[in-house]
Design a protein that fits this description.
- The structure holds two protein chains of two kinds.
- By secondary structure, chain A is of the alpha+beta class.
- Chain A is 24% helix and 34% strand.
- Chain A contains nine helices and 20 strands.
- In chain A, the strands form five sheets. Chain A has a six-stranded mixed β-sheet with strand order 6-7-8-3-9-10, with helices on both faces. In chain A, strands 2-1-4-5 form a four-stranded antiparallel β-sheet, with helices on one face. In chain A, strands 18-17-16-19 form a four-stranded antiparallel β-sheet, with no helix packed on it.
- In chain A, helix 6 links the parallel strand 7 (155-159) and strand 8 (187-192).
- In chain A, helix 4 crosses helix 5 and helix 5 (137-150) packs parallel to helix 6 (167-184).
- The longest helix of chain A has 18 residues, at 167-184.
- Helices cover 74% and strands 0% of the residues of chain B.
- Chain B is globular.
- Chain A binds chain B through residues 51-53, 72-75, 78-80, 82-84, 86-90, 99-100, 103-104, 147, 151, and chain B through 174, 176-177, 179-187, 190, 194-195, 198-199.
Chain lengths: 349, 277
């Protein structure tokens, strides 16, 4: 498979602190990859190293077959959108958008044509002569996108571009970014700490922690089959249970956990490992005789479309999500069922 | 009424002092330039001193002072930009900045003598160049009509002053804006011309004007390190008053210098308003 970006064993240190530790990834042409992790996990460091703003201490970066480690940022044929938009405050919208074109020696006709196209693409036609400070946050974000796209880069980098926008606008701009990326098939690396953003926009999500890749895969894979406790807890909410012992009954494997006995469909099940279950996968009404557990409701939080219920079973708290109409109250004794297909076996750490 | 009077009285030592110099001294000097209050001859209205301003000698002095002002202010500005850019984020930033401020604490006259000593006919620079066999004969840096040493002293003396003004402005440019510029294909030079310079233009204008005013009217450095001909305007003013006892012409030169500087400050204000717009 051809690769647009290939990073091999990237290491980046700040003094004694290792921000990125032997990070490797291959990104296909036109792929939308999101680096997801909490603050300080190294995702922005990877992005800035790809952009050329940081020098790798170890490892190699390739764009296609081209070795990029020593190539300065201005010669990498990439565009980056910054968290703060980084629009040039002294230039108009038009001059911001055509900046990259001028730097690349585009003719006046090409500049004016691409500026018009770019502003039309982000629905900002007619605002050519405004200064960035005369625009709203969302409009500034779109100018930054038009500016980044105007040079038709080989690679597009996004550094938490939506974090300064309100929730509604964030959703709109996110969809626009995805639509434009799909239309122009530009290889994209996107950095965010927002899991919902990562899951909704990406072809592939790379979950990072302490400079390492914890797991990578399609949004669905990452959400449905977390491979470790970090991913299970970082992406959405998860109940993580330690397997105390394992036994077989009628040809099926069962894990003895703090909340009770749970059937697990995995050949790798053994004592000491952990399993995870998403709150929304837990069924409150008993459907069958397997994985039926009971407990006392210790907390109920109404979240609009659903209620988040904390159930204490044998001293361990389980998070359960139920429909908004289900009658549950604190102190109520309930039984709940965990479908076998929803139990994930987590790798040992 | 009493309260207002009290306020004026409090302001008098400050504003009164400034007003005294502005109205009385400049007024007196202007009158002198038109032939009044003559110390050495008859007093009475005349334009002879102002007509004398158009003499070859005065014109040469004016061009000399203008060149010293321009070269010193723009020369030190260029070096300040280069240095600020070079040490931005550097490990030795604080040390370099401390060393760079040293010329502020050395009086202009002392600095001038130090540099003359270095570049004199038998100075260290000629000695090194000769020892390295780069030159056979010592160079006359301080030749008859060269302002080379004046430029050198003035740039050396004014660099730290400009750095104090310029450095915070350059440092205040957000790193992500510079990164965005590089990311979009701007090399170092384009980054400077397209982003750094426009964003610091208003501050650099202040720095240039302040240094220009000081160097345009300089007396000490041009008297020690300057050429035999032409004199700087201040030196010519001094020479005309004390050596030729021509206080009227001296006053005309002084008023002319004030007019030039006022015109420059007005141009600066106009440009500043345009930049803000």
């Amino acid at each position: 498979m051809a690769t647009a970006i290939s990073i091999r064993n990237l290491v980046k240190k700040y003094g004694d602190f290792t921000a990125v530790d032997h990070f490797s990834i291959d990104i296909a042409p036109g792929e939308f990859v999101t680096l997801l992790g909490s603050s300080g996990c190294g995702k922005t460091t990877v992005l800035r190293t790809i952009a050329g703003f940081l020098e790798a201490d170890e490892g190699e970066i390739y764009f296609g077959d081209r070795f990029m480690n020593n190539v300065p940022p201005e010669k990498r044929d990439i565009s980056m959108m910054f968290q703060s938009y980084a629009l040039f405050p002294h230039k108009t919208v038009e001059n911001n958008v055509n900046f990259g074109l001028r730097m690349h020696g585009a003719s006046k006709e090409e500049q004016s044509q691409k500026v018009e196209q770019g502003l039309e693409m982000v629905h900002l036609s007619g605002l050519n002569n405004r200064k960035p400070q005369e625009l709203s946050g969302g409009q500034q974000q779109r100018v930054a996108l038009a500016r980044a796209m105007a040079v038709t880069p080989q690679v597009l980098l996004f550094d938490e571009p939506l974090s300064n926008l309100d929730a509604k606008l964030r959703e709109t701009v996110r969809m626009e970014i995805r639509a434009i990326q799909r239309k122009y098939k530009i290889t994209t690396v996107y950095v965010t700490h927002d899991q919902e953003e990562a899951l909704s926009i990406s072809d592939r999500v790379v979950v990072m922690n302490s400079g390492h890749i914890m797991q990578q895969g399609t949004p669905e894979e990452i959400y449905k089959n977390p491979k470790n406790a970090f991913t299970a807890c970082f992406i959405g909410k998860s109940n993580v249970l330690q397997v105390e012992s394992v036994f077989c009954k009628e040809g099926k494997s069962f894990a003895k956990t703090a909340v009770g006995e749970i059937e697990v469909d995995s050949p790798d099940l053994k004592p000491g490992v952990s399993i995870s279950v998403r709150p929304e996968d837990i069924v409150v009404h008993p459907l069958n005789q397997t994985n039926v557990l009971s407990g006392r409701v210790s907390n109920v939080v109404f979240l609009g479309r659903y209620k988040q219920v904390s159930v204490t079973s044998n001293g361990t708290e389980m998070l359960v999500e139920v429909d908004k109409d289900v009658e549950v109250a604190e102190g109520m004794e309930i039984t709940y069922t965990i479908p076998v297909s929803c139990v994930n076996l987590l790798k040992e750490e | 009424m009493k309260k207002r009077l009290k306020t004026y009285l409090f302001l008098l030592p400050g504003i009164g002092y400034i007003l005294f110099f502005l109205v009385v001294i400049i007024g007196f000097m202007t009158m002198q330039s038109f032939g009044f209050f003559n110390y050495t001859g008859k007093s009475g209205f005349t334009l002879q001193y102002w007509n004398s301003l158009f003499s070859r000698r005065l014109l040469d002095s004016f061009i000399f002072s203008l060149k010293v002002g321009a070269v010193s202010s723009f020369g030190s500005l260029i070096i300040t930009y280069l240095l600020s850019f070079a040490i931005k984020g550097s490990y030795f930033q604080k040390t370099i900045l401390s060393i760079y401020k040293v010329p502020i604490f050395i009086p202009a006259l002392v600095g001038s003598f130090l540099i003359i000593n270095m570049f004199d006919y038998s100075g260290i620079v000629n000695f090194i160049l000769q020892s390295l066999h780069i030159i056979q004969e010592p160079i006359r840096f301080r030749s008859q009509n060269s302002a080379f040493l004046v430029y050198l002293v003035q740039i050396w003396k004014n660099m730290p002053f400009q750095l104090l003004i310029m450095y915070p402005a350059i440092q205040s440019i957000r790193k992500d804006i510079l990164d965005a510029g590089r990311n979009l294909g701007a090399g170092r030079l384009r980054l400077f011309t397209e982003i750094i310079f426009p964003l610091t233009l208003s501050t650099s204008l202040i720095a240039v004007i302040l240094v220009f005013i000081g160097t345009f009217g300089d007396f000490a450095v041009s008297s020690t390190a300057g050429p035999i001909y032409p004199f700087s305007l201040s030196r010519l003013m001094n020479y005309t008053a004390y050596n030729q006892q021509n206080w009227g012409l001296s006053a005309a030169i002084a008023v002319f210098m004030i007019i030039v500087i006022t015109a420059l400050v007005s141009a600066y204000s106009y440009l500043q308003q345009k930049i803000v717009k």
